[in-house]
Design brief:
This protein has helices at residues 42-64, 104-118, 120-126; strands at residues 6-9, 14-18, 24-28, 71-80, 88-99, 130-139. By secondary structure, the chain is α+β, with helices and mostly antiparallel strands. The protein folds into 2 domains: 1-40; 42-139, 2-Layer Sandwich (GMP Synthetase, Chain A, domain 3). It comes from Confluentibacter flavum.
């Protein structure tokens, strides 16, 4: 399957990118001269893609397994290399589940399936970074 995107320069340090569904997002560099940045920085966008990919897997499994979860979020901490080209060489992915009746075993299984089998973005990150995945359960 081939995905096609179009990324168009809008002047300055801003681009508009359309995805295969036709939705748009903006990519920008660090704000300069007091400009208000509305877009994503490219490397941060990669981290959002990682969280989104795995999050969609886990959300699908939560539904399929009929699990009771009040809140679910993914936090990512990533370290860039010092030398150019800078890339994320260490990435921590933290899954947080909140609820009063969490089935921790099944939720961990959902995370493991995403991390080990389903999330293609996770597999891409594995090619260039050291991944540390942790799951956190918060009882309400």
């Amino acid at each position: 399957m081939i995905n096609h995107i179009t990324t168009t320069w809008l002047g300055g340090m801003k681009f508009e990118s359309t995805n295969p569904s036709g939705n748009k997002l903006y990519i920008e560099a660090t704000p300069e001269n007091g400009e208000q940045a509305e877009g994503y920085r490219p490397k941060a966008l990669m981290l959002s893609a990682l969280a989104g990919c795995s999050g969609l897997d886990v959300a699908s499994l939560i539904k399929k397994m009929k699990l009771d979860v009040d809140d679910f979020k993914i936090e990512i901490d990533a370290d860039l290399t010092e030398e150019d080209p800078k890339y994320y060489h260490k990435v921590g992915v933290h899954f947080h589940f909140s609820g009063s009746d969490l089935n921790e075993k099944k939720l961990q299984r959902a995370v493991d399936l995403s991390v080990e089998k389903y999330c293609g973005v996770m597999e891409m990150f594995r090619q260039f970074s050291e991944l540390n995945v942790e799951t956190h359960f918060h009882k309400k």
